[in-house]
Amino acid sequence: MRVHLSAPxxxxxxxxxxxxxxSHPAVIRLEHRRIVGPAVETHLATGFCLDPQxxxxxxxxxxxxxxxxxxxEGVRVQRVFSFSDSAGSMTADVSRDxxxxxxxxxxxxxxxxxxxxxxPARGEQVMLHGYPAGLVAAELxxxxxxxxxxxxxxxxxxxxxxxxxxxxxxxxxxxxxxxxNASGQAVAMVSSxxxxxxxxxxxxxxxxxxxxxxxxxxxxxxxxxxxxxxxxRLYLPLEFLDPDSQLVQPGTQxxxxxxxxxxxxxxxxxxxxxxxxxxxxxSMENWVVHQSVQSSPGGNYEHDIRIHMGNVVFRxxxxxxxxxxxxxxLPGLVPGxxxxxxxxxxxxxxxxxxxxxxxxxxxxxxxxxxFSAAAEDGACSIRVRTPFHGERLKTLGCTGSVxxxxxxxxxxxxxxxDTGAQTxxxxxxxxxxxxxxxxxxxxxxxxxxxxxxxxxxxTYSSRVHxxxxxxxxxEAAESAGLLAARHP
Length: 488
Known about the structure:
By secondary structure, this protein is mainly beta. The chain folds into two domains: 215 residues, Thrombin, subunit H (Beta Barrel), CATH 2.40.10.120; 239 residues, no CATH class. It has seven helices and 27 strands. The chain is elongated and about 80 Å long. The two termini are 39 Å apart. The N terminus and C terminus are likely disordered.
């Protein structure tokens, strides 16, 4: 189970010692005291300054719940912002475990750390600054701010980041702790722990929440790192977008295997690839993106695309109407979810057989992996529309390849489907190129191409361009459970 602090009755704030080693000038110790029978229990948590003047603090919603927070170091609390659900009880969703404490005047001797919206690379070393201590240490006044080395493990949907520390390092008290990168920039805030892992809220998600309640402050916290209209920079040259490209060294093209052998357990290399793909697919829930589709024959289409309740939905740019499917001129097919689903297939379709296929040069050095699956494996599928049975999901055989750069980022996924006798197509190929978002450093889909040929020899193609990436921050605007507790 994930560990949360008990609901406090009284909150006492103790200043941290200045310094950038063990003690960080942005971090503040929060002591929770709860009356249990004739005794008073003391628990610890952490908060940290968001702005350079330290007039707004960030911590967890579960930390401030039921707390009568009047002042911090003699400075009056002006307002407390906290997420809750519509019924008024705290949500268990880590990404919404956020609270902001606005002060009437800045705190002396404290300053906020600069904020970075860049998601750490897998394995990147970071530092947690907080107060991990047990109940006894808190009651004896032995709790000291600690700097705990961690490494980044993976991203989860809704801007939740997972970090890992040495065994025994993470204890009660790190709720609300600040996570900083090697440049001293705050990248996340811890919400809960489970064993050696800390589940944290990304700086981007924190900033979205700040933007929803204190927009002027949000604008000052992230100069030059806004994502509205952001267009990813391709990792590979654009010529590698062509699904039928021959710009691949021999031996790295996916091969059809007439008799697939039983799947062998993944080696560590393939396991890492699956984890990267799963994290990439999950991170798509953080975004709304505008996609432009150019189809031949057919025409052009403009849509916004996002993930809603785990499903890909499309919003027509002209009418604003949302739909779970996007029709483009591929006869008998209804494509549209490849933006997220190709990476999810690599990560989650365990019957997909993945094998390392060596290294190649594609403008940059990349490692290639090939994959394949038979129709009965259920790993690859398309939606087929027939005159008599309407739309249905059909599993097919497939082959393909995944390219990974030297930093471990997925830069290209190629898939070729064995369309079978029950579809109007003789083949369908898909190529998806990824890129890096400026300011964020996150990997996202950038360009996609689809080529299909019917059994009667007609060729259809579609080119999809992804741009205008922006954070999916509807929760803050749409949630009816946002609490603003005012103090005179």
